């Protein structure tokens, strides 16, 4: 699909009376042919945003537009879902239970007045495209969760949509299936070179599938960027907390170094990204820390609360650190330390990101 | 353990065979008592031909009219938000609270030849004659539509409440217009609800007696023909007519069940549908006005009965509204023992029948849900049977069977005694109560009873401490439905009553014939009050249990 369109949201708002939930003044560009994930905790407004893009919820304010290859905008804010020509895969797939698989997939073509013979042929093609070539006559209830998801995808793709929208596409799959489906999904969507917006509450799903990730919190856009950018250069402590693991500790930048202070003990590491705002905190990812002997000078001292084996490495959770507001998770390549042991924690020579502290302006 | 189930199951089956199957078999057998003579007479009788045709026309038209009102109303009230919606949805089920005969009388007072609306229109336009007469097939369909659309409304509303709205969104997102979405997705998925309610309306209309009897104006239908034949003492003919009526009902039951087959789909997603707020200017003005008119139309029959209950008997002749008002009608009911008698009768007969229904319903539902008792399939069928057979047919069966004491043919003399009516009410309400209890027990995990027994509880203790509490919501709901139906019962009563056990409905009819409109209306108000008291009591009991 070479005529992929981009999508532009300009100051879009949607408020629900009395709930305090909704979306506030959201502006976001989705580039033609890119895979954008909307992430955030439940209630952050990500599903509302998706539903506004699809046309199921009218925005209270702002505009939504399609952007063609030449950069021309077409306003679709007031266009009903029928006329947007988007494909959508619902969280529970919303397959029509009274129609067999092929009829489900062909429904969008039926709505477009495509002849019976042609829609059968195109629906069969779409089914083959998701690897369900022989499933046309089956009842949708007889399919597994993964198969249902692929039928829903075929149904959304057969109408050759400008934009494909996916609402929690992986949340109804069991963990084993989830891994493989995730890879298949990315591979398929990339091959189609179609513009995709998908919603997920799972940061791992977003990182595995998306080109760029937009994180929402309480109805506002916190950050949009590549997965690496969100991980290594979070724009706020909210993003730092939501994306990846790690603790926050008071810190300041000094030249190209980051100085992290816990319980009066200051350690130094190369400065990574630094977001604006003061006072600042460091994002201490497990891989930026190392366990050392408890006697080592200038280390933060604590005791190992849990020891987790993760295949090629171990993760220790070190608590009881004087002056620390939370335990530190530390990655190590050895399992020599036992739970209950007294250890020291040191910064590795690994770039550390700084963000504004909670409550900072 | 299974022996105890077997004993209980056999006892319950025997009771059903004796009280439900036997009378109906007697009727069919009675229709052949003179060989095929009575059937030939039926087939060649123009009156019966007309009755059968009318019955079918009325039933089908009642279903169509109820669908035409109930389906759009259910969509309107569950899918849209407008001023007056809440009020309208409160009053939408009001007609169901009207005992059948009372509804008919209210319509007579309102739209009959000398009704308030009729005379009002006549006077307003200075017509020399009433603008319409409330007689014939279409008058009956009119009343049926008013009382029976509620079934369709309730079924479809419940279906829509459970409906996964993302299915509609999926359809529109794929480019389907609202009309296509409705035709290809929403309505097909509501088929079980729609067909279920159609069945209910068809059955009610088929067996309906009050409307044709009170203002049929010479319109023959099967249920009234049966009574006429019985009063003329042509019992053979009555049996044939009853058999035809019952067979039609059973045929309709199977036909609609066949349509409904394999159409019930569990909904996966959340049912939550956001109501569309009515935006357009015109509709924002029109919607509350239309809602107010609809509410007025719905309340009018109740208001009319209340109004007439204060009218002095014999004073309302040619005026639009009754000219004189008094409390005497109610005073008479309370002081005159002869007028008090029907009230005592109805209340005590309803109480007896309901008590029997509750015990029977609990045992039957227990067998059906929680045991592997033999003959469960048959039991389920027999329990549903009294619902499928029109009340007139059941009543005639009882009168044909329990008219003498005879041990050899397992007959008892009940006709002419007090007990025949509670017995008839009991049979009529078996499906109602058993279904309600079944519903409650199905929500209970069957292993819980096993667990209780495994902990050493005796059958009786498990029944009392585990099964009974689980069944209680269903018992309360069933008892409410049964007592409401019994206290206002008319159709079986008119076939079986005697002067001594005449219920309220019969007294209303005889007061009406004596042109004592005020007294008839006072009884009707009392009946409505009883229904209200019962439903309020049941709600209170339900709230206390929750």
Describe this entry's structure for a reader.
- The complex is a heterodimer of chains A (361) and B (546).
- In chain A, 24% of the residues lie in helices and 35% in strands.
- By secondary structure, chain A is an alpha+beta fold.
- A six-stranded mixed sheet of chain A has the order 6-7-8-3-9-10, with helices on both faces.
- In chain A, helix 3 (101-111) packs across helix 4, helix 3 (101-111) packs parallel to helix 5 (145-157) and helix 4 crosses helix 5.
- The model of chain A has no long low-confidence stretch (mean pLDDT 91).
- Helix content of chain B is 75%, strand content 2%.
- In chain B, strands 1-2 form a two-stranded parallel ribbon. In chain B, strands 3-4 form a two-stranded antiparallel ribbon.
- In chain B, a hairpin with a 4-residue loop joins strand 3 (403-406) and strand 4 (411-413).
- In chain B, helix 20 runs antiparallel to helix 23.
- The longest helix of chain B is centred in the first third of the chain and has 34 residues, at 46-79.
- Chain B starts with a helix and ends with a helix.
- End-to-end span of chain B in angstroms? 32 Å
Enumerate how many helices of chain B there are, as a single number.
Answer: 23
- Biggest interface and residues each: A-B, 30 and 22 residues
Number of strands of chain B: 4
Helix residue percentage of chain B: over 70%
Outline type of chain B:
globular
Category from helices, strands and their pairing of chain A: alpha+beta
Main sheet record of chain A: 6 strands, mixed
Mean pLDDT of chain B: 87
Find the count of extended strands of chain A (DSSP E, 2+ residues). Answer: 20
Straight-line N-to-C gap of chain A: 45 Å
Keywords:
heterodimer; A: 361 residues; alpha+beta; 6-stranded mixed beta sheet; 5-stranded mixed beta barrel; 9 helices; elongated; B: 546 residues; mainly alpha; two-stranded parallel ribbon; two-stranded antiparallel sheet
């Amino acid at each position: 699909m070479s005529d992929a369109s981009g999508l532009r949201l300009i100051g879009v708002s949607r408020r629900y009376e009395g709930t305090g939930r909704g979306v506030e003044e959201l502006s976001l560009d989705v580039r033609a042919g890119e895979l954008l994930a909307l992430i955030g905790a439940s209630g952050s407004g990500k599903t509302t945003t998706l539903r506004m893009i699809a046309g199921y919820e009218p925005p209270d304010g702002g505009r939504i537009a399609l952007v063609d290859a030449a950069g021309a905008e077409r306003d679709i804010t007031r266009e009903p879902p029928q006329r947007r020509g988007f494909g959508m895969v619902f969280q529970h797939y919303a397959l029509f239970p009274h129609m067999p698989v092929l009829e489900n997939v062909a429904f969008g073509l039926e709505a477009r007045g495509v002849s019976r013979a042609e829609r059968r042929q195109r629906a069969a093609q779409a089914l083959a495209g998701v690897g369900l070539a022989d499933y046309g006559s089956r009842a949708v209830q007889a399919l597994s969760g993964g198969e249902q998801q692929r039928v829903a995808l075929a149904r959304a793709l057969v109408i050759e949509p400008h934009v494909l929208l996916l609402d929690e596409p992986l949340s109804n799959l069991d963990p084993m299936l989830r891994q493989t489906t995730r890879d298949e999904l990315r591979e398929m969507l990339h091959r189609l070179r179609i513009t995709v917006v998908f919603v997920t509450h799972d940061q791992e799903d977003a990182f595995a599938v998306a080109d760029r990730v937009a994180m929402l919190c309480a109805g506002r856009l916190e950050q949009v960027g590549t997965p690496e950018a969100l991980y290594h250069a979070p724009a706020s402590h909210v993003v730092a907390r939501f994306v990846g693991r790690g603790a926050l500790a008071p810190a300041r930048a000094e030249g190209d170094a980051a100085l992290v202070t816990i319980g009066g003990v200051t350690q130094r590491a190369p400065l990574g990204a630094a977001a604006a705002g003061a006072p600042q905190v460091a994002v201490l990812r497990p891989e930026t820390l190392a366990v050392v002997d408890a006697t080592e000078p200038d280390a933060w001292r604590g005791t190992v609360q849990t020891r987790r084996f993760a295949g090629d490495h171990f993760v220790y959770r070190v608590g009881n650190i004087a002056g620390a507001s939370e335990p530190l998770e530390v990655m190590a390549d050895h399992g020599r330390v036992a739970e209950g042991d007294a250890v020291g924690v040191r910064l590795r020579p690994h770039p550390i990101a700084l963000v504004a502290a909670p409550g900072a302006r | 353990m299974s022996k105890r189930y077997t004993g209980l199951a056999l006892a319950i089956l025997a009771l059903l065979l004796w009280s439900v199957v036997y009378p109906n078999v007697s009727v069919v057998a009675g229709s052949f008592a003179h060989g095929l003579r009575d059937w030939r007479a039926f087939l060649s009788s123009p009156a019966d031909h007309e009755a059968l045709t009318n019955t079918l026309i009325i039933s089908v038209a009642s279903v169509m009219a109820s669908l035409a009102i109930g389906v759009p109303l259910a969509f309107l009230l569950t899918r849209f938000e407008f001023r007056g919606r809440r009020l309208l949805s409160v009053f939408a089920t009001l007609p169901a609270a009207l005992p059948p005969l009372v509804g008919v009388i209210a319509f007579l007072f309102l739209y009959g030849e000398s009704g308030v609306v009729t005379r009002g229109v006549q006077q307003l336009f200075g017509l020399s004659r009433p603008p319409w007469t409330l007689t014939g097939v279409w008058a009956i369909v009119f009343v049926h539509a008013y009382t029976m659309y509620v079934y369709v409304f309730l079924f479809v509303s419940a279906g829509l409440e459970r409906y996964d709205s993302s299915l509609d969104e999926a359809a529109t997102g794929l480019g389907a217009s609202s009309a296509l979405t409705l035709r290809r997705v929403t309505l097909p998925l509501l088929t079980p609800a729609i067909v279920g309610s159609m069945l209910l309306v068809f059955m009610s209309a088929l067996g309906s007696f009050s409307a044709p009897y009170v203002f049929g104006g010479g319109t023959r239908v099967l249920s009234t023909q049966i009574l006429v034949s019985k009063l003329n003492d042509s019992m053979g003919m009555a049996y044939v007519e009853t058999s035809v009526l019952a067979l039609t009902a059973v045929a309709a039951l199977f036909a609609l069940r066949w349509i409904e087959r394999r159409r019930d789909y569990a909904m996966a997603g959340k049912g939550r549908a956001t109501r569309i707020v009515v935006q357009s200017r015109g509709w924002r003005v029109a919607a509350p006005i239309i809602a107010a008119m609809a509410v007025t139309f719905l309340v009018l029959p109740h208001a009319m009965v209340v109004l007439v209950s204060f009218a002095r008997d014999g004073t309302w002749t040619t005026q639009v509204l009754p000219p004189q008002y008094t409390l005497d009608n109610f005073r008479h009911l309370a002081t005159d023992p002869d007028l008090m008698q029907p009230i005592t009768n109805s209340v005590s007969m309803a109480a007896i029948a309901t008590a029997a229904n509750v015990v029977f319903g609990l045992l039957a539902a227990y067998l059906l849900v929680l045991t592997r008792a033999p003959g469960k399939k048959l039991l389920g069928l027999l329990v549903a049977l009294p619902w499928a057979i029109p009340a007139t047919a059941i009543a005639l069966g009882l009168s044909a069977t329990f008219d003498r004491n005879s041990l050899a043919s397992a007959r008892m003399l009940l006709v002419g005694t007090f007990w025949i009516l509670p017995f008839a009410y009991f049979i009529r309400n078996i499906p109602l109560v058993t279904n309600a209890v079944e519903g409650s027990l199905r929500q209970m995990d069957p292993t819980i009873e096993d667990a209780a027994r495994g902990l050493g509880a005796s059958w009786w203790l498990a029944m009392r401490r585990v099964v009974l509490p689980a069944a209680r919501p269903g018992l309360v709901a069933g008892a409410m439905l049964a007592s409401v139906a019994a206290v206002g019962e008319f159709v079986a009563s008119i076939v079986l009553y005697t002067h001594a056990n005449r219920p309220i409905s019969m007294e209303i009819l005889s007061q009406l014939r004596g042109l004592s409109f005020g007294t008839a209306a006072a009884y009707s108000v009392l009946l409505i009050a009883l229904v209200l008291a019962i439903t309020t009591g049941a709600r209170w009991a339900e709230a206390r249990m929750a």
